[in-house]
Design a protein that fits this description.
Two copies of one chain form a homodimer. Chain A is an alpha/beta fold. Helices cover about 45% and strands about 20% of the residues of chain A. Chain A contains 15 helices and 16 strands. A seven-stranded parallel beta sheet of chain A has the order 10-9-11-8-7-12-13, with helices on both faces. In chain A, strand 7, helix 10 and strand 8 form a beta-alpha-beta unit. The longest helix of chain A has 18 residues. Chain A is globular. The two termini of chain A are about 45 Å apart. Chains A and B meet through helix 9, helix 10, helix 15, strand 13 and strand 16 of A and helix 9, helix 10, helix 15, strand 13 and strand 16 of B.
Chain lengths: ~400, ~400
Amino acid sequence: MLTELGKRAKSAQRKLMTASSGEKDKALLAIADALEAKTAYIIAANEIDIAAAKEKGMSPSMIDRLSLSETRILAIADSVRQITKLSDPCGRILSGEKRPNGLVIEKVSVPLGVIAVIFEARPNVTVDAAALCLKAGNCVILRGGKEAIHSNQKLAEIMREAVSRSGLPGDCIQLVEDTSRASAEALMKMNGYVDVLIPRGGAGLIRSCVENASVPVIETGTGNCHIYVDKDADLTMAADIIFNAKTSRPSVCNACESLVIHRSIAKEVLPLIKARLDEKSVVIHGDEETAAILPGVLPATEEDYGKEYLDYEISVKIVGDIDEAIEHIMKYTSGHSECIVTENYSAQRQFTDEVDAAAVYVNASTRFTDGGEFGFGAEIGISTQKLHARGPLGLPELTTVKYVIHGDGQIR
Amino acid sequence: MLTELGKRAKSAQRKLMTASSGEKDKALLAIADALEAKTAYIIAANEIDIAAAKEKGMSPSMIDRLSLSETRILAIADSVRQITKLSDPCGRILSGEKRPNGLVIEKVSVPLGVIAVIFEARPNVTVDAAALCLKAGNCVILRGGKEAIHSNQKLAEIMREAVSRSGLPGDCIQLVEDTSRASAEALMKMNGYVDVLIPRGGAGLIRSCVENASVPVIETGTGNCHIYVDKDADLTMAADIIFNAKTSRPSVCNACESLVIHRSIAKEVLPLIKARLDEKSVVIHGDEETAAILPGVLPATEEDYGKEYLDYEISVKIVGDIDEAIEHIMKYTSGHSECIVTENYSAQRQFTDEVDAAAVYVNASTRFTDGGEFGFGAEIGISTQKLHARGPLGLPELTTVKYVIHGDGQIR
């Protein structure tokens, strides 16, 4: 069954690969129009998912993620239209050279091929992932969570019809309707059909893909992000950045999870930080020195330092110098976003050189690690691996390259 | 044991990551000098491997691959010196922008980290892989075949001492001395220590890595390369290219394995091709039409079309038009190198657009898919996957990126 779906995707890919930017944009606009026209149809299906979720006692925040209102559907359609305004990442001649023997070698950007996306209970990802893949000339195989299956079925149906009406193969977008664990695992091993697998979701899903997939995976999303407050920091700026990075949206991967504080300014800055974090009742886990300065904080365990709280919680470690700070960060980093707050030139230089992460910040909130904020226009996730792409995955990251070589009979 | 080795590599990586180009080149020159100075020492160890190989009845061509003479060692040392002349792929600002909010975002090339290389019985790979990784700021964990273990031990020892003497950590280069299957499998699952695994060797080794690895893999090397002779081909050029691509070095991945011939010129070109291939006694497997034109060729089975012979053998398929040719190639391609011979503008355009492979040629031998021939100066393998890198892997492909962001207190 999945193999059948893979075959259809591969066959559609042959057509999509050579589609012009105009044809792809036409399909995207058809998707946006169809989503708008069928708002009531989508909401009716979504209500079935929500009723089931309520019955199962799903948390209100999860139900909120699952819900599609008219406003939300219009926003989704609008974001599809926005994608048509971005430039086509395919067909760019990235470099080229005429070799001494007369061969002309060009390196050209081309679609990755068939991209599988495994995600959880957010039906907006269904449209988002399909539209981004389509824009970059890729077929997509979507495997969403069972909680959103009715919504996803309708969304996929509407998108497939729209693409087909626009003249491209509807099979460019495939939904795996079987939401069992077995279907996800089968997708992870579809070598020959799936060129890349992108998991979007919690740490458990991502770990399962990394451990089980034999197709290439782009690991996304886990963010144990640190902010180091250096001895030469502007302390008010530090407290403002920390407040923003921790509390503006605690559930996302670019939120700050851990603070590293230079001993010489700890007594001065920690009360400032705590005062800000108290506004949102953030729970602080600190080492002994932190507890001596901020009585009543919870003790920070080894586990706390390694934890992505994704909540109003933060850990604190006090260090003697920047080397110790970097050592601590490199021990616990998930390679997402790390920040130093300092006015010291050499300290920021050492930090940006020695900290190995997708994004390294000087004097700015880690919350900026985001395709939109980086100016990419769109994003399909944030890569925390080093192969292929690191940081926000925009349209160019959904392409690969092909060498095209023109000769006149050269032999070697 | 492997974990210990991984820890040492990771710790060395911290230092190597920030080493200057000068420091890395100094270490490479020290390696080249030490290899030259210790030629006799290396040859003595190599002789143990060769004696064992002969006793096991290894084929002369395999023994040749395993052998290190003084000339070969000098050539290896020289190729290490050549690497110092290439530009450092790290620390390049690939793009950058000042965002409307004042954040300056730079995309910088940085080392991948720790690269594991699993390879077979060619001790020159030991030095080659280590030197390329070092130049790009990466630590390497080498796991060679048991046939070359004595040679590899000495080579690794010499390189580690040389790097250490030059001032960088000797642990940048690690050799897995346990050559059991278990050690290879353990290496494939060293998430957290190994950033990328590059297998170099036969199809079995590569398949095993793709199937079993949980660390990211760059798949290299399988080449079922086709040459399509179009109806508008210069037939003498076609025969010359085919002769070169098949016979100049049949054991390599960029050698041609299969011919696709347009029906309208088949009667004219096949005898020309056969006359050239007969010079090297190439065995031809053809479909029925081919057999009707070239009496006595062996029948081509489904298996033949999918096969990388790596020998003086080739398959032939006759097609009615270019669409059928592309269809056939896309069915059997391993995504390595594909060629069209034609004088027809539209045909070459369709072929280069629709054939999805690392390298697509017009009127030139597939044998040019090679880092040296592409002007990369050096190569660690040829990627046939789409993620991260495709085609010859040069020094830039041994790096990843880091976003470095400078602000003055920006929050979101």
